[in-house]
Amino acid sequence: MEVRVDLRSDTVTMPSPEMRRAIYEAEVGDDVYGDDPSVNELEEKSAEMLGKEAGLFVTSGTQGNLVSMLAHCGRGDEVLVGDRSHIFSSEAGGASVLGGLFLYPIKTDRYGFLEPDVIRAATKPHDYHVPPTRLLCIENTHNQMSGQPLTAEQTHAMADAAREGGMNVHIDGARIFNAAVSLGVDVKELVAPADSATFCLSKGLSCPVGSVVVGRQDFINHARRWRKMLGAGMRQVGVIAAAGIYSLDNMIERLDEDHANAKRLAQGLAEIDGISVDPDNIHSNIVFFQIPPGSGSAISANLKERGILVNAGDPMMRMVTHYGISSEDIDYTLVAMQEHFRAAVAAA
Ligand code: TLP
Fold it and tell me: With a 6 A CB cut-off, is 52 part of the ligand 1 pocket?
């Protein structure tokens, strides 16, 4: 059956016709020489929007986080990360493999927050038996915590605890614009407590490729060297940077629609016997919900027969709303879920 609704991730979004036009018309040059006007514009615009000195276009969120950690730390340094963070759980340990960094996981609360006292307790003393704790990484919105947005106050509290211990602060803001739209604040406020941040263009903002790292100019120069070393000095890359510029101008405000669809989805799922989810806890575009253990692959197979794609998480399943998902798609999915669970109860 043809795919009708793809809820696996917001990474599956397709560029709109207008975005494709921006790509087609992009002015380009060799970016390793600093000659690509579209890349330069994207980097400057990103830095300006997030209130930082400079920006760096990178290939992915993973690469943005990696070059940031490598630029903040030296071999043998320690990075504090949330135990449910994407950096710790889903980036293949790159900072350890490629940078000799020690990732130290600390407890994440159900809102994606890292308690300041937990940060303090994890900060190592000046003692040559232990690695120097150099960096704290914060994730906003928090993917595994159902896309929870962290407020500027929460971010300040975490960053203050890190600074007491002499650390720098990096934000994995893969979905920081979802956080800003959800909280109704300027994105600058959310990243102000941090030295650096990465945000993704190829998730809710619907670009085909890319992320941007922002921070102080000296930090960005350092990150640029690491990017080159990782083989991602790109050439006439304005063709994809142009999509990024387009998205920053046109794709942010509409994220509200994705959040409304996620809420509608969670409300519908909450009414199904066998599913557990708190719709009041859904504030952006990610809905995690609990299903009966062992039922994940049957649910995803059944949905697939109706043209709905989801990842077979078990017992926590995830659905992500985005530019390619309408409220009708949500209703269609809810009917499919209701019918699946009704049939499962009847067969039991
Ligand atoms: N997340 C992807 C997958 O890797 C799971 C998704 O579908 O949600 N930080 C956060 C918070 C992320 O959610 C992701 C991607 C990344 C970083 C990495 O971005 P990419 O995939 O561009 O390397």
Answer: no
CB of 92 within 6 A of ligand 1: the answer is no
Please give the C-alpha separations between residue 166 and each of 5, 135, 158, 259, 262, in angstroms, as whole numbers: 47, 8, 13, 37, 39
Ligand 1 mean position, distance from CA 270 (Å): 26
pLDDT score at 346: 80
- What's the pLDDT band for 345 if we cut at 50, 70, 90? confident
The answer to whether the CB of 49 falls within 8 A of the CB of 38 is no
Dihedral angle sign, alpha carbons of residues 5, 329, 324, 297? negative
Q: How many CB atoms lie within 10 A of CB 66?
A: 27
pLDDT exceeding 70 applies to what percent of the chain?
100
What are the structure tokens assigned to 211, written together?
Answer: 């992320």
Q: For ligand 1, atom 5, name the residue with the nearest CA.
A: 90
In 59-192, the DSSP E strands lie at: 78-82, 102-106, 133-139, 168-173
For residues 184 and 149, give the distance between their C-alpha atoms in angstroms, rounded to a whole number. 11
3-state secondary structure of 345: helix
Summary mean pLDDT of the chain: 97
- For ligand 1, say whether the CB of 81 is within 6 Å of any of its atoms: no
- Nearest Cα to 61, choosing from 196, 254, 179, 203? 203
Instruction: Give the pair of three-digit tokens for residue 113.
Output: 């927050």
Query: Do the beta carbons of residue 330 and residue 321 sit within 8 Å?
Result: yes
Measured torsion, CA atoms of residues 101, 107, 110, 114, in degrees rounded to the nearest 10:
-70
* Structure tokens that stand for 231 in this block: 């083989």
- Beta-ladder partners of 316: 290
Q: Is the pTM of this model over 0.85?
A: yes
Cβ atoms < 10 Å from Cβ of 225: 13
**Collapsed DSSP state (helix, strand, coil) of residue 297:** helix
